[in-house]
Amino acid sequence: EEDERTERIEAALDELGDDVVILGHNYQRREIVEHADFIGDSYQLSKEAADSDADYVIFGGVTFMAESADIITDDAQSVILPSMEASCPMAGMAEALQVDAAWAELTAETDENIVPITYMNSYADLKAFCAEQGGLVCTSSNAHKAFEYAFEQGDKVLFLPDKHLGENTAYRLGMEDEIVDWDPWDPEGTTAAEAVENDIILWEGYCQVHERFREHHIDAIRDEHPDANVIVHPECRREVVEAADVSGSTATICEKVAEADPGDTWAIGTEIHLTHHLQRWHPEVNVVPLCGDACMDCNAMRQIDPNYLTWVLEELVEGRERNVIEVAPEEKDLAQVALDRMLEI
Ligand code: 13P
Ligand code: SF4
């Protein structure tokens, strides 16, 4: 079945030629990344989308990534997401309308200038909101630079939606004493007036995959492989990042394993498909999942089934554009400002 599907995908790609580019996030299934022209982290893929002049950008990733590609590419290009079900739950944890209401509450409590930074894992309307308020977008590979930029522009940062990436970035910058967690809907939690007494205000969002890594997983790996290098994604909890040897974006994780000496052991604390790719790409390195194979699977990324990839490509051959991701024009320009600020830093 897989051979037949591969043949169909290759036949469609031959037919479409340079009209199509396939981008594959590091967390995509093997059957998707095998067909990708570029594989990378969110930042690298947004740059590839910006540089591409293909008529169709087929995005192996999740909705917010395809939206970003649509914002960055020109209007004549179409971005296609093979499954419309591929939505990152973390992106849904900070909806622009909610943030707008919370922002009003927060800014009413201080005369100081708050700069909002949203992680790439958010929808276009929130990116547009951040641009409007003088803020920007970041990914896990440049969050520290986004913070530096924000503190040049203003006095405080509101970081959305990932509290763990926000906290880990604050530690990286030696600003751990400036952090406060703020959930505007928790009647018992920090109030807006209390929140603005701190320089870094963290929204209550998280990744359901990375939050499941715990320190005991690292302890178990170190017992079993005393020489292991442990690398985790900065969406992991603070204590996990602290117990690891290194943390970094999926691109950093790929680089570290690519640079490893034969026989080295690297334990990988991120989505399981990337760990499996690294095992295949670097058989000379002992690549082990930080927490077994079972639970660290991103359901949103998994929605991009190779049968859907086949379908969108074959439909294109027939002249039909399916699953086009189009950001509303009123959000597009502003969201572009927030992304451009990121690409510039
Ligand atoms: P990267 O930007 O590191 O690829 O991460 C994206 C993501 O969704 C991590 O969960
Ligand atoms: Fe979203 Fe987490 Fe999946 Fe990344 S791994 S796409 S943050 S749910």
What does this protein look like?
- With 345 residues, the chain is an alpha/beta fold.
- The chain has three domains: 2-87 and 301-329, NadA-like (Rossmann fold); 91-208, NadA-like (Rossmann fold, 3-Layer(aba) Sandwich); 210-297, Rossmann fold (3-Layer(aba) Sandwich), CATH 3.40.50.
- Helices cover 44% and strands 16% of the residues.
- The chain is built from 16 helices and 13 strands.
- The strands form three sheets. It has a five-stranded parallel beta sheet, sandwiched between helices.
- Helix 4 links the parallel strand 3 and strand 4.
- Helix 1 (2-16) runs parallel beside helix 15, helix 5 (96-107) runs parallel beside helix 6 (124-132) and helix 6 packs across helix 16.
- It is globular, with a radius of gyration of 20 Å.
- The termini are far apart.
- The relative contact order is 0.17.
- The mean pLDDT is 96.
- Bound molecules: 1,3-dihydroxyacetonephosphate (13P) and iron/sulfur cluster (SF4).
- Residues 26, 41-43, 121, 139-140, 207, 233, 235, 249-250 line the site of 1,3-dihydroxyacetonephosphate (13P).
